[in-house]
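Tip: read the tokens left to right.
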């Protein structure tokens, strides 16, 4: 039985529990939202406000900590004025400081999880290329952080998303604007923003070339690895955009990365030692 099912069963046996919980909370916070014009400002009634508190289990929807009289804030969309929920002051302040910008929030989340004491390389390629992990592991063996975790979604991820979107009656444009698409896009974009260089591993499709172009547009070094068995039938002169060149041998690329980023690792280590000294 899931947690949701357990909760539903418990509430069925205890129909007044939520109302009692709300009453206890109000007893502890007798002056909550005393300033009535704050509710009227959003078109909220006391009943609707109480229902929001109960639905949220008196917790902030950002940090999930308990809401108190002093901390509770009505959060709303500053463009449409639509009420989104109740937050604590800290979470409301955090949203305000990033301008409700989802891309910035994903960027900060990616920033927190990456170890920037190492050079970071974003490995671009196809979900259908089993060599992605092999190349990623080889790069990691150089003490370089390699971002290839997008490969974990599986080789039919894009097809499954397309089929799901069509089944939901969404156009391609609507599918691109969906929560699931944005979740992946914002994180991948954040990783591209944070990496030090990108490597495009052939074979690769349109998405990979778009990512390569985006990263190099940010001024990041770009490498292309096309081993002999994956040479395209039609040559493309625009491969010259790869700022660090095109490689036909895996070992040659690894040697280039070791030379360039091995020196950077040594520099980072020297700086760390000098600061500790």
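Filled-in amino acids:
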């Amino acid at each position: 039985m899931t947690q949701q099912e357990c909760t539903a069963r418990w509430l069925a046996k205890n129909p007044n529990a939520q109302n009692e919980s709300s009453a206890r909370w109000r007893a502890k916070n007798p002056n909550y939202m005393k300033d009535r014009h704050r509710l009227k400002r959003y078109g909220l009634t006391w009943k609707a406000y109480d229902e929001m508190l109960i639905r949220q289990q008196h917790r902030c929807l950002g940090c999930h900590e308990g809401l108190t009289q002093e901390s509770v804030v009505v959060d709303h969309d500053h463009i449409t004025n639509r009420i989104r929920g109740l937050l604590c002051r800290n979470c409301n302040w955090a949203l305000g400081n990033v301008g409700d910008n989802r891309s910035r929030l994903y960027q900060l989340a990616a920033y927190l999880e990456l170890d920037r004491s190492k050079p970071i390389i974003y490995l671009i390629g196809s979900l259908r290329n089993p060599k992605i992990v092999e190349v990623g592991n080889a790069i990691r063996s150089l003490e370089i952080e390699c971002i290839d975790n997008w490969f974990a979604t599986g080789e039919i991820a894009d097809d499954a998303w397309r089929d799901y979107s069509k089944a939901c009656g969404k156009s391609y444009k609507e599918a691109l604007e969906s929560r699931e698409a944005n979740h992946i896009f914002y994180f991948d974009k954040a990783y591209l923003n944070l990496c030090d260089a990108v490597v495009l591993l052939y074979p690769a499709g349109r998405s990979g070339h778009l990512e390569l172009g985006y990263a190099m547009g940010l001024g990041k070094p770009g490498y292309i690895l096309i081993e002999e068995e994956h040479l395209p039938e039609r040559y493309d002169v625009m491969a010259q955009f790869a700022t660090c060149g095109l490689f036909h041998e895996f070992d040659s690329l690894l040697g280039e990365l070791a030379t360039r980023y091995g020196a950077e690792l040594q520099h980072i280590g020297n700086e760390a030692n000098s600061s500790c000294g």
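The two ends are 56 Å apart (CA to CA). The mean pLDDT is 85.
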